[in-house]
Amino acid sequence: MTEPAPxxxxxxxxxxxxxxxxxxxxGLTFEREVSLSSGTQVVEELARVGVDAELRDADAELxxxxxxxxxxxxxxxxxxATGEDGALRAVLDLAGVPYVGSPAAACRLAWxxxxxxxVVRTAGVTTPDWVALPHSTFRELxxxxxxxxxxARLGLPLMVKxxxxxxxxxxxxxxxxxxxxxxxxxxxxxxxxVLVERFxxxxxxxxxxxxxxxxxxxxxxxxxxxxxxxxxxTARYTPGLTEYHAPARLAxxxxxxxxxxxxxxxxxxxxxxxxxxxxxVSPDGEVHFLEVNVSPGLTETSMFPMAVEAAGHDLxxxxxxxxxxxxxxxxx
Length: 332
Prior knowledge:
Blueprint: E1 20-24, H1 32-48, E2 52-56, H2 62-68, E3 73-76, H3 81-84, H4 87-95, E4 99-100, H5 104-111, H6 113-122, E5 130-134, H7 135-140, H8 143-154, E6 158-162, E7 172-174, H9 180-188, E8 193-198, E9 203-211, E10 216-218, E11 222-226, H10 233-237, E12 242-245, H11 252-268, E13 274-281, E14 287-293, H12 303-310, H13 315-330
Parallel strand pairs: 1-2, 1-3, 3-4
Antiparallel strand pairs: 5-8, 6-7, 6-8, 9-10, 9-11, 9-13, 11-12, 13-14
Helix pairs in contact: 1-13
């Protein structure tokens, strides 16, 4: 029987003093509770591998706290705008605080789903055709006329979702023309612009990427099989409504293409350290990019930890390696 390959993060160089990390979680977004779950899990994983980690919220006490008791590095477990639109990271840059994750400009690009789709399509990545519709256009030109044009161009069914945001909040599959106006209105509750894209039937996969110092590496794909057929907010966070397979049940050549797509997206958008790309594998084996997450969920039931485990890595060691690299990069 072949012995499993050793994890590349099994040995972390010893530090003269224990690494001190601050894990940011919470924030004032729709995804606050998910973020707190991610942050708590990160702190527990880091403590297990000997890292002194403190959980903190992104509030008015954050910067004074970091100034009074500097961390070696910060891990951002914030979801939604607070952790993913680049603004907080820009402030951390101003304060000279090292953090794990993508730089502010790359986060801003990834956060804007239509812009990210444009960039990755230019890089040769397949992604469903789409239209981005601001609320002002929807209102000023008349909803009916605009929606008729969208259906004529993209057909049915459609996937309707906020142009920014995570956890599939506001995302809906629309199969009937008469259901489209309500879906649009629902999405506008989460942001000023809605992304309407052609729905691609197939197997949904989460494609995680991590860079431990030797360039971005795609972890095994995680297959997502929601009972309803759509991986929306309810399917993500209601126990028993979604089945996961790690690694995904894909043919070897399809799995290889999915891995290549995830790395290409990571590089095309200028991401760093870790990311998770959401994609659909159609029945013909084509892999279609949907969106990318710069702050993937890290709860006990999130896909990034599943992928880490499927790769034979230890999650705590992976997180510690990422923090150690950022801490060392900051030192003179």
